[in-house]
Amino acid sequence: MISKISQRDKVAFEEAVIHSNSNNQIIYAIKFLKNWFLERIASSFPIPSWRTKLHKMRGIKIGKEVYIGYDVIFDRVHPDFITIEDHVEIGDRCIISAHSRGTLLLRDFYPRTTAPVIIKKGAWIAPGCIILQGITIGECAVIGTGAVVTKNIPSWSVAVGMPAKVIKKLKE
User: Fold this and answer.
1) pLDDT for residue 30
2) pLDDT tens across 61-79, in order?
3) Rounded to whole angstroms, how far apart are CA atoms 170 and 172?
4) Which GO terms describe its molecular function (predicted)?
5) How many Cβ atoms from other residues are within 10 Å of residue 1's Cβ?
6) What sign results for the dihedral spanned by CA atoms 38, 43, 46, 48?
7) How far apart are the C-alpha atoms of 23 and 72, rounded to whole Å?
8) Considering the domain boundaries, does residue 2 fall inside one?
9) For the chain, what is the domain count?
10) Residue 149 domain-assigned (yes or no)
11) 62: phi then psi, degrees, rounded to nearest 5
12) CA-based angle 54:56:61, to the nearest 5?
């Protein structure tokens, strides 16, 4: 038997509906379930170009010749806030999030916020990276394995660490 939905789930759902600019909870719920299902399939699909197509079907704006590795998690609530330009490569098990929120008790300090994530042409995101909301990764930038990106990364730069810091420029 399914138990009653928690207060936390109700609040999170209502916030997500508001931030998606949807006035209809049923339509939002159907869209969310469709995106969840597509993400689960895309996450482990063996053909890389099909992983990309499945993520596009979720609403992520993806350019041409993009590689998305296995188990990459794109924001489940706001995939349409993510743009990936041409020739980008994203390694396995990265997380790209376009929203954030605190617990029920911390909502006054950390309300739900959303902001676009843009990964520019030719960028390489190595495996295990986390990219937070509102971030732009510049053209042909390299994000080292396991980096946590909390600030914009300029074009033609290499950034590593937690939080990610630029350690070198690839061209002046």
Assistant:
1) 87
2) 999 999 999 999 999 889 9
3) 7
4) O-acyltransferase activity
5) 2
6) positive
7) 30
8) no
9) 1
10) yes
11) -125, 130
12) 160
In a domain, residue 19? The reply is yes
- Least Cα distance to 66 among 42, 50, 46, 45 occurs for 50
pTM of structure: 0.90
- 3-class DSSP state of 7: helix
Provide the token pair at 4: 């009653």
For tokens 């990364």, the residue is: 153
User: Would you say the C-alpha torsion 144, 66, 52, 19 has a positive or negative sign?
Assistant: positive
Domain contains 58: yes
Residue range of the domain that includes 125: 7-169
Nearest Cα to 17, choosing from 37, 3, 31, 7?
A: 31
pLDDT at 1 over 50: no
pLDDT digit string, tens, across residues 8-60? 878 878 888 777 777 788 888 888 899 999 999 999 999 999 999 999 999 99
